[in-house]
Amino acid sequence: MANYTDESVLKKVVGSAARWTTKYSPSDKVPVSGIYRCVNCEREVTCNEGDGFPPQNHSQHAAGKPILWKLNIRTNTTGEL
Predict the structure, then answer these.
(1) How far is CA 37 from CA 7, 56, 73, 80, in A?
(2) 68, 39 in Cβ contact below 8 A?
(3) Cβ atoms of 28 and 46 closer than 8 Å
(4) pLDDT of residue 14
(5) Which of 27, 36, 63, 78 has a CA-to-CA distance to 11 between 20 and 30 Å?
(6) Quick one: 40 exposed, middle or buried, by C-beta within 10 A (0-12, 13-18, 19+)?
């Protein structure tokens, strides 16, 4: 789980855009920079836009539990809203 302090400028948003709801597989291209969480094991990784998500061997799951990354916190590296 990502942690933050009272001095943080995190802002809660309604996550209906595709960037918040889409699940990504290992090595898929990262659509936006941010902190992604695996929906099965809850491990988090920081990824940069345009890079690939961590490969399948980054973290192993029990049989039948695929690695699927979902955006948890978007990091605004370009100043866009």
Answers:
(1) 23, 14, 9, 22
(2) yes
(3) no
(4) 76
(5) 27
(6) middle
